[in-house]
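Task 17 of the worksheet. Students: predict the tertiary structure of the chain below and write it out as structure tokens. Keep your answer in the requested format; marks are given for formatting as well as content.
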Amino acid sequence: MRSVSRMMATVVAVLSIMVCSMASALAAAATSTIDWNESVVRVAGYGIAPANARTPSLARLMARRAAIADCQRQMAEAVAGVSVDAETTVEMAAVSSDVVRTHVSAVVNGARIVSERVVGDSYEVTMEVPMFGVRSIAGAVMARPERIEAFPAPVASVDPSPVLTTGSAESSKGSSAAPAPSGRAIGGFTGLIVDCRGMDLNPVMSPVIYNENGQPIYGYKNLDYDKVVANGMAGYAKTMEQARRAGSNPLIVKAVSLKRHNSFPVLSNADANRVLIENGASQFLDKTNVVFLR
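Model answer:
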């Protein structure tokens, strides 16, 4: 009897080690992604059923529950790391406000399952939380400003850029539109693309565009709050083809530098003036039809 008991104890110990090893491997395989191109936080979680599950169906159900719990844990960590602006993460905002913390928790708990499948002896669940829209991170952390501030006037001593690029997939090779007289808008632009490629731009939920004088020309306080929460202030893309948010005829400018932890693009005064003048004619900034290439 003693030998049998020792044998059973050995088997249980080996099984425990195997389960722990599998759990460690699954934890290592778990992934989380802040997808700025799609404006979502996405996590993949994994679960395994306990060895004493009575039926295969029950084992699968228990593994699924474990995978969902893993996703929720990861989602809380991933959402906490999202940059609201150049200085603040979601975690910082939640720490400073009980209201924000409650709203963020509700967003995490409301994460949507987008896919699930059996993977060998484990179960995989992928979940997403939107950065913008209904029940989004933006709605949880972004406060409504007291008033909407007007866009600034162009720098009077600097002529706006005469070279414009319209809606082709080519970057900054010239314009199909005739240059406007100094200080006048060409018009018809559907959005703005700021080319920051090769500059290590850090995406944030609330970006600001500056001119070379250090003056902000586009920011959160210039926009309708409900529109910002619903759509975000800007999209992020890798290529011109992905910059559909800016429409079919975007104004394209090249950032000259970045500031505030590489989060905010800086435009030449001439380009910034062109952006402000064209926005006065077409209101693409007001519509948040802005894309940053990175």
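Marker's comment: The mean pLDDT is 86. The two ends are 69 Å apart (CA to CA).
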